[in-house]
Design a protein that fits this description.
This protein is about 40% helix and about 20% strand. The chain is of the alpha+beta class.
C-alpha cells in the first residue's frame, strides 16, 4: 500500500472512531488541518520539478478528496444518529392512556352562596354585589359608627394606603353591611323617575369581607351575606319568620331551633345574635351562632335618604363559611382556603 493510500485508510479509521462532531473535527485536523499529514505532503512538493509536481499533486488531491468524502460521510452519519436519538427522546407513546381532564366543581363556600341566593330569591329578595374596597363612610360612618366611636374596635380592619374623598383611608370592608346604604341609594334612584311609590327594599348582598384575624375559626378573608328588608310595616316578627324559614330550608331540617340573643351593633336597635340548635346529629343540643341582626337604626335609614318615621325594617349579616362548616361537618375554616384539591374534591 502506498503512503497516500495508507493516510486515507488511517483517516477513514480515525473518522469512524469519532463519536461526536467535536471528535470528528479534531480527527480531521490531523489530516487536512494546518499541520495535518496531507497539508505537510503538499508543503513538501516545493522542491519537486514541474512534471513531478503535476503527478504528485494530482495524487495528493485524490487522497485529499477521498479523505473529505469520508469526512462528509461521517458528519452525515453523526448528524443522522443525533436526529434518531432526539426523535426517540421526543417520541409520543400513543399506547399510553390519555390524561383525563376531570370536570371541576364549585368550591363548597360557593355552593353555600348559591344555595343562600336561591332560598332568598324564592322569598322575593334581590341579590346585590358591591365593592370590597370601601370608603370609611360606607363601612362605618353611614352605619351610625362615627370616627372614634368605640364600637369601631369590634372590627380589626385592614386599611388601604389611599385616602377616600373624606380624607380617610379606604378599607377592605370588614362586613357586607355597607351594602345596606349602597343598595338603598341605588334602589331609590332607580325608582325615583317612575312616579310610582317606591317598592320595599328586599335584598341580600353576599361577598368577601376582611378582618385582621386568623385561627381555626377565623380567616383574614372570609364571607358574609347581608340581608335587608325595609318597608313601611316590616317588623322583628318578619325577621324571625324569614330567618327561621331560611335556616330550615338551608339545613333541610324542620327540627331546628332558633334563638335571638340580645346583642349590640351600632346600625341596629334592638340588635340580636341569631343562634341555631340542631335536635339530631353530631351537633345536637349546642347553640351555634350564625348571624348578627336587628332592626335598622333610624340614623342608618336617614343615611339611606329615607324618612325613619316612615321606613322601618331589619337587617342581618350571616357567615356563609360558618354555614358551610356546619352543613358539611368541617371543623377547620382554613381548609376552605388552603386550596388542597383532596379536600375540595369531596364537595364536587
Ligand atoms: N355587620 C355585622 C357583623 O359583621 C352583622 C350585622 C349585619 C348585624 C346586619 C346586624 C345587622 O358582625
Amino acid at each position: 500500500m502506498n503512503e497516500l493510500d495508507s493516510i486515507v485508510d488511517s483517516a477513514r479509521h480515525a473518522f469512524s472512531q469519532a463519536s461526536t462532531p467535536a471528535d470528528l473535527e479534531n480527527a480531521k485536523a490531523q489530516f487536512t488541518g494546518k499541520a495535518g499529514r496531507i497539508t505537510e505532503l503538499m508543503k513538501g512538493m516545493a522542491a519537486l520539478s514541474v512534471d513531478e509536481k503535476k503527478s504528485r499533486g494530482a495524487a495528493i488531491n485524490l487522497a485529499k478528496q477521498a479523505i473529505e468524502a469520508a469526512l462528509n460521510d461521517r458528519r452525515q452519519a453523526l448528524a443522522d444518529a443525533e436526529l434518531q436519538t432526539q426523535l426517540k427522546a421526543e417520541a409520543l407513546d400513543v399506547s399510553l392512556p390519555g390524561r383525563v381532564r376531570e370536570p371541576g366543581g364549585l368550591h363548597p363556600v360557593s355552593l353555600t352562596m348559591e344555595r343562600i341566593e336561591q332560598i332568598f330569591a324564592s322569598m322575593g329578595f334581590d341579590v346585590a354585589d358591591g365593592p370590597e374596597i370601601e370608603s370609611d363612610w360606607h363601612s362605618f360612618t353611614s352605619l351610625n359608627n362615627p370616627p372614634n366611636h368605640p364600637a369601631r374596635s369590634m372590627q380589626d380592619t385592614f386599611y388601604v394606603d389611599i385616602n377616600g374623598e373624606d380624607g380617610i383611608p379606604y378599607n377592605l370592608r370588614p362586613h357586607t353591611s355597607p351594602m345596606q346604604v349602597r343598595y338603598a341609594h341605588a334602589h331609590i334612584k332607580k325608582h325615583a323617575a317612575s312616579g310610582k311609590p317606591m317598592p320595599e327594599i328586599r335584598v341580600i348582598a353576599p361577598g368577601r369581607t376582611y378582618r385582621v384575624d386568623s385561627d381555626a375559626t377565623h380567616s383574614p378573608m372570609f364571607h358574609q351575606c347581608e340581608g335587608l328588608w325595609l318597608g313601611e310595616n316590616v317588623s322583628f316578627k318578619d325577621l324571625k319568620v324569614v330567618f327561621t324559614d331560611f335556616c330550615r330550608t338551608f339545613f333541610e331540617s324542620d327540627d331546628l331551633a332558633l334563638r335571638f340573643r340580645p346583642s349590640f351593633f351600632p346600625f341596629t336597635e334592638p340588635s340580636a345574635e341569631i343562634d341555631i340548635q340542631f335536635q339530631t346529629g353530631p351537633l345536637a343540643g349546642r347553640w351555634l351562632e350564625v348571624a348578627g341582626s336587628g332592626q335598622v337604626h333610624p340614623a342608618v335609614v336617614r343615611n339611606m335618604g329615607l324618612d325613619p318615621e316612615k321606613y322601618i325594617g331589619f337587617a342581618f349579616g350571616m357567615g356563609p363559611d360558618r354555614l358551610t362548616m356546619l352543613r358539611y361537618g368541617v371543623n377547620d375554616l382554613r381548609l376552605f382556603f388552603d386550596g388542597d384539591i383532596r379536600f375540595l374534591r369531596q364537595f364536587r
